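## retry 2 of 3
previous attempt timed out at serialization; input unchanged, resubmitting
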Amino acid sequence: MRAIRQILISMVAFAAVPAAFLQGASDTVQFIGGSSKAIPVNSTGTFAFGDAKELQFNYGQSVYKLPYSQITGTDVIHGETRHFLKKIPVPSMPGHRKETLSVSYKDPSGLTGTLNFELTENQANWAREAIAAKTAKPASQAASNQTQDWWGDRYWKTNRNKAAWEGTSQTTQPGQPATSTPSGTKE
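## retry succeeded, writing output
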Protein backbone atom coordinates (compact mmCIF):
# COMPACT_ATOMS: atom_id res chain seq x y z
CA MET A 1 0.00 0.00 0.00
CA ARG A 2 2.84 2.35 0.83
CA ALA A 3 4.48 1.80 -2.59
CA ILE A 4 1.24 2.66 -4.39
CA ARG A 5 0.93 5.86 -2.35
CA GLN A 6 4.49 6.87 -3.27
CA ILE A 7 3.82 6.24 -6.94
CA LEU A 8 0.61 8.32 -6.84
CA ILE A 9 2.34 11.21 -5.05
CA SER A 10 5.19 11.11 -7.59
CA MET A 11 2.75 11.15 -10.50
CA VAL A 12 0.84 14.12 -9.07
CA ALA A 13 4.07 16.04 -8.42
CA PHE A 14 5.35 15.39 -11.95
CA ALA A 15 2.02 16.41 -13.51
CA ALA A 16 2.04 19.68 -11.58
CA VAL A 17 5.38 20.78 -13.01
CA PRO A 18 4.61 23.30 -15.76
CA ALA A 19 5.57 22.35 -19.28
CA ALA A 20 7.49 25.60 -19.75
CA PHE A 21 9.78 24.64 -16.87
CA LEU A 22 10.53 21.28 -18.50
CA GLN A 23 11.17 22.80 -21.92
CA GLY A 24 13.56 25.56 -20.92
CA ALA A 25 14.26 28.31 -23.42
CA SER A 26 13.07 26.94 -26.74
CA ASP A 27 14.92 29.23 -29.12
CA THR A 28 18.40 29.17 -27.61
CA VAL A 29 21.28 27.38 -29.26
CA GLN A 30 24.57 26.52 -27.59
CA PHE A 31 27.89 26.41 -29.46
CA ILE A 32 29.69 23.34 -28.09
CA GLY A 33 32.83 23.39 -30.21
CA GLY A 34 34.32 23.15 -33.63
CA SER A 35 37.26 24.33 -35.64
CA SER A 36 36.32 28.03 -35.43
CA LYS A 37 38.05 29.89 -32.62
CA ALA A 38 35.98 33.04 -33.21
CA ILE A 39 33.10 31.74 -31.08
CA PRO A 40 33.83 30.95 -27.42
CA VAL A 41 32.91 27.38 -26.45
CA ASN A 42 29.59 27.04 -24.59
CA SER A 43 28.31 30.37 -25.94
CA THR A 44 24.53 30.57 -25.98
CA GLY A 45 22.69 32.43 -28.70
CA THR A 46 20.27 32.16 -31.59
CA PHE A 47 20.39 31.45 -35.32
CA ALA A 48 19.28 34.09 -37.81
CA PHE A 49 18.35 32.84 -41.29
CA GLY A 50 16.99 36.18 -42.59
CA ASP A 51 20.08 37.02 -44.66
CA ALA A 52 20.07 35.37 -48.09
CA LYS A 53 23.87 35.04 -48.24
CA GLU A 54 25.06 34.16 -44.71
CA LEU A 55 24.12 32.05 -41.73
CA GLN A 56 24.29 34.17 -38.58
CA PHE A 57 24.81 32.97 -35.02
CA ASN A 58 24.02 35.78 -32.57
CA TYR A 59 25.63 35.29 -29.17
CA GLY A 60 26.05 37.94 -26.48
CA GLN A 61 26.79 41.23 -28.26
CA SER A 62 28.58 39.47 -31.15
CA VAL A 63 27.51 37.88 -34.43
CA TYR A 64 29.33 35.04 -36.23
CA LYS A 65 28.62 34.99 -39.96
CA LEU A 66 29.20 32.05 -42.29
CA PRO A 67 28.40 32.45 -46.02
CA TYR A 68 26.04 29.76 -47.32
CA SER A 69 28.34 29.33 -50.31
CA GLN A 70 31.03 27.93 -47.98
CA ILE A 71 28.75 25.38 -46.27
CA THR A 72 29.44 21.88 -47.58
CA GLY A 73 26.98 19.92 -45.44
CA THR A 74 25.04 19.49 -42.22
CA ASP A 75 24.51 16.54 -39.93
CA VAL A 76 22.27 15.99 -36.91
CA ILE A 77 23.69 13.74 -34.18
CA HIS A 78 21.14 12.38 -31.74
CA GLY A 79 21.82 13.06 -28.08
CA GLU A 80 22.18 10.45 -25.42
CA THR A 81 19.20 9.30 -23.39
CA ARG A 82 19.17 10.65 -19.85
CA HIS A 83 19.05 8.18 -16.99
CA PHE A 84 17.72 8.43 -13.44
CA LEU A 85 20.22 6.93 -10.97
CA LYS A 86 22.29 5.86 -14.02
CA LYS A 87 19.90 2.94 -14.60
CA ILE A 88 16.37 4.05 -15.43
CA PRO A 89 15.95 5.81 -18.80
CA VAL A 90 14.03 9.06 -18.48
CA PRO A 91 11.71 9.80 -21.42
CA SER A 92 11.99 13.24 -22.94
CA MET A 93 9.14 15.27 -24.32
CA PRO A 94 8.71 14.70 -28.07
CA GLY A 95 10.71 17.23 -30.06
CA HIS A 96 12.61 18.54 -27.04
CA ARG A 97 15.44 16.03 -26.83
CA LYS A 98 18.87 17.65 -27.16
CA GLU A 99 20.75 17.00 -30.38
CA THR A 100 23.93 18.26 -32.01
CA LEU A 101 23.83 20.10 -35.34
CA SER A 102 27.17 19.87 -37.09
CA VAL A 103 27.75 22.36 -39.92
CA SER A 104 30.68 21.55 -42.23
CA TYR A 105 32.24 24.31 -44.28
CA LYS A 106 35.22 25.13 -46.45
CA ASP A 107 36.81 28.55 -45.87
CA PRO A 108 38.19 30.73 -48.70
CA SER A 109 41.71 29.35 -48.19
CA GLY A 110 40.41 25.80 -48.83
CA LEU A 111 40.59 24.50 -45.25
CA THR A 112 37.63 22.48 -44.01
CA GLY A 113 36.02 23.10 -40.66
CA THR A 114 32.99 22.35 -38.55
CA LEU A 115 30.70 24.17 -36.16
CA ASN A 116 28.80 22.12 -33.57
CA PHE A 117 25.67 23.43 -31.90
CA GLU A 118 23.49 21.82 -29.23
CA LEU A 119 19.78 22.44 -29.68
CA THR A 120 16.45 20.68 -29.46
CA GLU A 121 15.34 18.05 -31.95
CA ASN A 122 12.78 20.38 -33.55
CA GLN A 123 15.28 23.22 -33.84
CA ALA A 124 17.91 20.92 -35.35
CA ASN A 125 15.55 19.66 -38.05
CA TRP A 126 14.29 23.17 -38.81
CA ALA A 127 17.83 24.64 -38.97
CA ARG A 128 19.04 21.81 -41.21
CA GLU A 129 16.15 22.37 -43.64
CA ALA A 130 16.73 26.14 -43.63
CA ILE A 131 20.44 25.71 -44.39
CA ALA A 132 19.67 23.17 -47.13
CA ALA A 133 17.22 25.57 -48.75
CA LYS A 134 19.76 28.40 -48.70
CA THR A 135 22.65 26.27 -50.01
CA ALA A 136 20.64 24.51 -52.74
CA LYS A 137 21.67 25.35 -56.30
CA PRO A 138 19.05 26.73 -58.67
CA ALA A 139 17.42 24.03 -60.81
CA SER A 140 18.98 25.30 -64.07
CA GLN A 141 22.48 25.25 -62.55
CA ALA A 142 21.98 21.81 -61.00
CA ALA A 143 20.76 20.39 -64.33
CA SER A 144 23.79 21.71 -66.19
CA ASN A 145 26.12 20.10 -63.63
CA GLN A 146 24.60 16.64 -64.02
CA THR A 147 26.43 14.19 -66.20
CA GLN A 148 24.78 13.17 -69.43
CA ASP A 149 25.10 9.43 -68.71
CA TRP A 150 22.08 7.29 -69.41
CA TRP A 151 21.70 3.68 -68.31
CA GLY A 152 20.74 2.58 -71.82
CA ASP A 153 24.14 3.60 -73.21
CA ARG A 154 25.53 0.34 -71.84
CA TYR A 155 23.11 -1.73 -73.94
CA TRP A 156 22.31 0.14 -77.19
CA LYS A 157 24.33 1.80 -79.89
CA THR A 158 23.07 5.29 -80.65
CA ASN A 159 24.48 8.45 -82.15
CA ARG A 160 24.77 9.77 -78.62
CA ASN A 161 27.28 7.09 -77.55
CA LYS A 162 28.86 6.31 -80.89
CA ALA A 163 32.38 7.18 -79.69
CA ALA A 164 32.15 4.64 -76.86
CA TRP A 165 31.13 1.83 -79.22
CA GLU A 166 33.71 2.42 -81.94
CA GLY A 167 36.47 -0.15 -81.76
CA THR A 168 34.38 -2.65 -79.81
CA SER A 169 32.38 -5.62 -80.99
CA GLN A 170 29.13 -6.85 -79.50
CA THR A 171 28.38 -10.34 -78.26
CA THR A 172 24.86 -10.97 -77.06
CA GLN A 173 22.98 -13.92 -75.69
CA PRO A 174 19.19 -14.14 -76.02
CA GLY A 175 17.66 -12.60 -72.90
CA GLN A 176 21.03 -11.22 -71.73
CA PRO A 177 22.19 -7.62 -71.91
CA ALA A 178 24.79 -6.75 -74.50
CA THR A 179 28.39 -6.87 -73.33
CA SER A 180 31.35 -5.40 -75.06
CA THR A 181 34.68 -7.07 -75.70
CA PRO A 182 37.68 -5.11 -76.80
CA SER A 183 38.83 -5.61 -80.36
CA GLY A 184 42.37 -6.78 -80.73
CA THR A 185 44.38 -9.88 -80.07
CA LYS A 186 45.12 -11.78 -76.91
CA GLU A 187 48.70 -12.22 -75.88
